[in-house]
Description:
6 helices; mainly alpha
Amino acid sequence: MMVAIPLSLIGIILGHWLMGAFFTATSFIGMIALAGIMVRNSVLLIDFINLRLAEGVSLKQAAIEAGAVRTTPILLTAGTVVIGAFVILFDPIFQGLAISLMGGTIVSTVLTLLVVPLVYYMIERKNHPEQPSETELE
């Protein structure tokens, strides 16, 4: 779940660099807030994988479905954060907060949808032997 936090740092640093802004105390507050949002997204993905595993789906299929099915709620959350942060983007005091939230959300949302299911699959594949597919049984 915590894999998403370093992914958000990529967007935060890139956002500050592109905007030519300094990393301020409000930028750090935005980074902390963003960490909570990204961990929530990871929880959504991992919970979906675990639900599918409980239904008897293979780990590989569950990880692929998690990225596909949970994309909409994660993108809605990301869009809300970006639109909300845009309002304070041009405020001199809270600009760092807005840049952290916007840049980090955009980059880490895309990376989280790909990396979290992949890392979960790589860690858990030894605990879940692949079941033969229906075509292999025939």
